[in-house]
From TrEMBL:
Domain (PDZ): residue spans on this chain: 276-355, 372-465
Keyword tags: Hydrolase, Protease, Signal
Family: Belongs to the peptidase S1C family.
PANTHER family on file: SERINE PROTEASE FAMILY S1C HTRA-RELATED (PTHR22939), SERINE PROTEASE HTRA2, MITOCHONDRIAL (PTHR22939:SF129)
Lineage: Bacteria, Pseudomonadati, Myxococcota, Myxococcia, Myxococcales
Annotated coiled-coil segments of the chain: none
Protein origin, superkingdom: Bacteria
UniProt xrefs under InterPro entries: PDZ (IPR001478), PDZ_6 (IPR041489), PDZ_sf (IPR036034), Peptidase_S1_PA (IPR009003), Peptidase_S1_PA_chymotrypsin (IPR043504), Peptidase_S1C (IPR001940)
Signal sequence, renumbered to the chain: 1-23
Protein name as annotated: Trypsin-like peptidase domain-containing protein
Amino acid sequence: MRPHPLVPWCLLFCLAFVTSARAEGGLNPWLQARSREHSVWMAEQEHRTEANSLALWRERPPGKGAEIPEFVPPTSLAPLIRAVEASVVRITTLNAQSRFGVAGRSTGSGFVLTPDGLVVTNNHVVARAQSIDVGLSDGREFPAEVVGRDASTDVALLRLRGVGPAPLPAVYLGDSDRLEVGDWVVAIGNPFGLDHSVSHGMISAKERVLGVDVFDDFIQTDALINPGNSGGPLFNMHGEVVGVNTAIMSQGQGIGFAVPINLVKDLLPNLRENGRLERGWLGVDVDDAHAGQVERYLVVKHVYRRSPAAEAGIRSGDQVLAVNGKTIDSYLQLLRKVALLAPGTETKLTLMREGAKQEVAVKLAARPAPETLQALASPGNMDELGLVLKDLSPEVAASTGNTAYSGALVTGVVPRSPAAQAGVTAGDVITEVNRRRVKDVAGVRAILERGEVGTNVLLRVQRGDVQQYLALAP
């Protein structure tokens, strides 16, 4: 390439200028002035660039680190794992024979609840077990028996046999209600028979409903949970158990579920005393409602006669705020909280009545069968007597072997009610009330409404081929 014809002239000019400036001693001041001008220009360019970038994103000034309150980046989990791993156990079961005549062997996980040998695991780990062996991390093994188990929550309580006087390494239980999405957790168990495998992750979500049961209230975590982890503990960063690892989602990876430990706390006394979930009953119907954006509550719309709630003085219109000090936000939360408690348990409800808070002690009763509860909400509910009635329509009469509209069919009896105490049973047909003939539910209700409040009620009932009189004391 040929140089531009003006290039030689420019070089001669610069050389002459530099020679002249050197002769006059003015080169340094000139360079300094040009340097200052260049610095100012560069600063303007940097400011302009920074202003443009701030319109799209923010960056911290150089040398300033992250300033997120209460956030401490995790380092090693080894000290925590060393402190808690001895309480995690391996559970091996010899299961009942299948339909092919083969007795299967399976493994799961669990954790030591008490130093004298109570162990928590999943119900599905031991549901079909004919024999159970529990192994500790130090090599000791013990036979175990089921103290109690519940399929609806998938929780089981075991007792080790032959433990001896030396205490076992028991866990500490935490507060799962205080968990937040993003909290770090550690899962320890025996996936695929690999003893004391550790995985870690965080809380991905809370109160997950999987459609298994009304007690669905799972913690979702991305800490790896695999077959064999079932029944093992989910630890928080304080080394406390906050969940019982239970389920995985086969369609995805890093999606596991654990039963919240607070639910397990409510259930354990029931399992220890009754061997199964004896569900408590309060005896109210409620509506979900909200009071502004600060405090939520439930409104009692109906109280069943002679129910625990009625005996405790709970009224329609009362607002239920908490059960045993735990805030209640929905009907399902109230149902879970009460149903997990054993009948006979004294429970404290926090109510709002006419603008004033008050504590009410309620002694729970046994929860009636689902069919009875459903019937109690039907138009044939004779609440004052504890009877649930149904018309003997031609279809109903044909299926029960009765004559159509020959009386009112008893389809349910409320426990501890006057009808139950008098001996009325489901399947009876009421043909007379206070010696007046009745042919349907409306006839029974009309006679009861004409009677005096609090007086005895005389029923004539037909039970198969036998008719008898029964006196009910409301």
